[in-house]
């Protein structure tokens, strides 16, 4: 998983035209890096299957399209993992053949909706983390996702989180800052970000707290922040 994360990060670094295309992967291979492997188990949630066919269809369409009420929509399924963005650099997820993962994306009309990620035990789901969003000045976006358990079988997932060392300073790379896209976030250490994160609810858009006000962005783009 680590090797794959590095390969993906190096390709992203190359694609973004970084002077050092290995900048991201070096953060994760540093001896002090804070990488993490998480295993999630979601017990079966069969309530939906006790309903008749029409109700099941109604509920399934509700779960996959309705993004309101702060992500607490139960609709026969159980919130297995609340709405959040991953805080690290990159996440690589593998799961069994039980669905449940949903991502929050704009649809073709610009409205946002929850989209079900099809289950595929042979696939790896790659997610950009908040730190990569900050390092790329928002060029890469860390999307919100959640798990709603509606299946009669347990869902199992394993996620490798490629992370920087605690002391690493996270600051947008100069190649990602332009006159039309000035520095968006003040710099922070990964330790500082983790402390902030643990003081907030899982669903909090924590990176917003590090956003530079429009008034400050002129100074920031000149490196004074
Ligand atoms: O188990 C899943 O499918 C997603 C879990 C997740 O988003 C996480 O552990 O950060
Ligand atoms: Fe996640």
UniProtKB/TrEMBL annotation:
Keywords associated with the record: Iron, Metal-binding, Oxidoreductase
Domain of life per record: Eukaryota
Chain segments annotated as transmembrane: none
A GO term for molecular function: oxidoreductase activity
Stretch forming the signal peptide: none
InterPro entries to which the protein is assigned, alphabetical: IPNS-like_FE2OG_OXY, IPNS-like_sf, Iron_ascorbate_oxido_reductase, Oxoglu/Fe-dep_dioxygenase_dom
Alphabetical list of Pfam families matching this protein: 2OG-FeII_Oxy (PF03171)
Domain Fe2OG dioxygenase positions: 32-164
Family membership: Belongs to the iron/ascorbate-dependent oxidoreductase family.
Name of this chain's protein: Fe2OG dioxygenase domain-containing protein
Source lineage: Eukaryota, Viridiplantae, Streptophyta, Embryophyta, Tracheophyta
């Amino acid at each position: 998983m680590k090797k794959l994360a590095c390969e993906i990060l190096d390709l992203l670094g190359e694609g973004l035209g970084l002077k050092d295309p290995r900048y991201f992967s070096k953060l994760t291979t540093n001896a002090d890096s804070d990488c993490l492997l998480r295993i999630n188990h979601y017990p079966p949630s069969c309530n939906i299957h006790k309903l008749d066919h029409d109700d099941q269809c109604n509920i399934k369409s509700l779960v996959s399209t309705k993004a309101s009420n702060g992500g607490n929509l139960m609709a026969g399924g159980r919130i297995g993992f609340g709405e959040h963005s991953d805080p690290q650099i990159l996440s690589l997820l593998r799961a069994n053949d039980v669905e449940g993962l949903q991502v929050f994306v704009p649809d073709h009309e610009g409205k946002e909706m929850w989209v079900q990620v099809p289950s595929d035990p042979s696939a790896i789901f790659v997610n950009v983390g908040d730190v990569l969003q900050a390092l790329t000045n928002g060029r890469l976006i860390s999307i919100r996702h959640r798990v709603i358990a509606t299946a009669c079988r347990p869902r199992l997932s394993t996620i490798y989180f490629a992370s920087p060392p605690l002391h690493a300073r996270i600051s947008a790379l100069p190649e990602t800052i332009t006159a039309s896209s000035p520095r968006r976030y003040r710099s922070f250490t990964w330790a500082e970000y983790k402390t902030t994160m643990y003081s907030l609810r899982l669903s909090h858009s924590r990176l917003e707290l590090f956003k530079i006000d429009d008034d400050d962005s002129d100074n920031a783009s000149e490196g004074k922040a």
